[in-house]
């Protein structure tokens, strides 16, 4: 995994032993492990395994899921390196877009009517989990107008799993750009130029944290995603912006009027740490929290 090595320390003999990485014995082992812990590993709620696309299409989708923002997700697995995994996933993604009602029925049965009514069809995703990818795979995903994540896995010893995002590409850029302009315009029209400018500054900081940051627009928030959400920006209020981060509030020195623990409280977006931003200086203060949330994702 990018040359990363894992060592087990031996405190008794002051020694250190390398834990050698390995691939799964069979593809089904990878699939079973990810499906059992899909929300933890990928930020995706598991819907179905080996889902049949019917006799006409003649296929079987490895895994179906729903991500944190309500986007449909197809997950395809390969034990090692396989040049066909991306094309196979795109084949199923095309089927999915032609069978929206069937997918929404599946969501309704599993997660309820509300979740089914909020499926975000503007941003369907394909996640490919494999032992490795080639540079041609990385180039190929950047040529498609779809949201595609390439995730490399390795097993270490008998109880450790490592995952690494090799490439992450966001689809539907034209539609996203139009919605971003609408977001900023709404802020300018309804909340004043200062809040619109502050929202733009936050947007620039979050997108600049590193490669592979995707932006997902929902009616009540804007999510910043690195495989999983790491920040959610809500539309400006009269005098402040609210950003929700995937940072443990118990590990932060909370400052009244700036940071708040919202775990267990209902709010738009995802994340248990609320950050309140009123001035550009607040944005500077919050950057260490932004980076911590990005790193955790």
Description:
The two termini are 17 Å apart. The longest helix is centred in the middle third of the chain and has 19 residues, at 173-191. Strand 7 (125-130), helix 7 and strand 8 form a beta-alpha-beta unit. Helices cover 37% and strands 30% of the residues. With 297 residues, the chain is of the alpha+beta class. It has ten helices and 15 strands. Helix 8 packs antiparallel against helix 9 (193-207) and helix 9 runs parallel beside helix 10 (280-296). Mean pLDDT is 89; it is low at 173-179. Strands 3, 4, 5, 6, 7, 8 and 9 form a seven-stranded mixed β-sheet that branches. A six-stranded antiparallel β-sheet has the order 10-11-12-13-15-14. Strands 1-2 form a two-stranded antiparallel sheet. The radius of gyration is 21 Å and the shape is globular.
Compute the separation of the termini in Å. 17 Å
Number of helices: 10
How much helix, percentage-wise, in residues? 25-40%
Structural class: alpha+beta
- Number of E-type strands: 15
Binned strand content: 25-35%
Report low-confidence residues grouped into runs of 5 or more: 173-179
Mean pLDDT: 89
Rg of Cα set? 21 Å
Series of secondary-structure elements, N-terminal to C-terminal: EEEHHEHEEHHHEHEEHHEEEEEEH
Largest sheet properties: 7 strands, mixed
The best one-word shape is globular
């Amino acid at each position: 995994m990018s040359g990363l090595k894992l060592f087990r320390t031996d405190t008794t003999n002051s020694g250190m032993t390398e834990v050698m990485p390995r691939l799964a014995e069979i593809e089904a082992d990878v699939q079973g492990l990810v499906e059992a812990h899909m929300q933890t590993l990928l930020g995706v709620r598991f819907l179905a395994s080996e889902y049949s696309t019917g006799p006409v299409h003649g296929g079987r989708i490895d895994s179906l899921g729903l991500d944190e923002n309500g986007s449909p997700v197809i997950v395809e697995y390969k034990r090692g390196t396989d040049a066909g995994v991306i094309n196979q996933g795109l084949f199923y993604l095309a089927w999915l877009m032609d069978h929206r009602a069937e997918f929404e029925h599946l969501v309704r049965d599993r997660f309820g009517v509300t979740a089914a009514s909020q499926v975000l069809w503007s941003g369907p995703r394909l996640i490919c989990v494999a032992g490795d990818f080639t540079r041609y795979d990385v180039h190929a995903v950047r040529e498609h107008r779809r949201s595609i994540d390439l995730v490399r896995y390795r097993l270490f010893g008998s109880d450790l799993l490592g995952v690494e995002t090799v490439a992450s590409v966001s689809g539907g850029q034209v539609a996203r750009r139009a919605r971003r302009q609408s977001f900023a315009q709404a802020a300018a029209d309804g909340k004043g130029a200062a809040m619109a400018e502050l929202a733009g500054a936050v947007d620039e900081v979050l997108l600049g944290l590193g490669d592979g940051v995707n932006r997902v627009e929902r009616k009540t928030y804007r999510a910043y995603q690195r495989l999983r959400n790491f920040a959610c920006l809500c539309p400006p209020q009269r005098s402040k912006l609210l950003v929700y981060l995937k940072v443990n509030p118990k590990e932060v020195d909370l400052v009244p009027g700036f940071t708040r623990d919202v775990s267990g409280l209902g709010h738009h977006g995802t994340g248990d740490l609320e950050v309140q931003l009123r001035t550009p200086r607040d944005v500077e203060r919050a950057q260490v929290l932004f980076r911590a949330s990005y790193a955790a994702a």
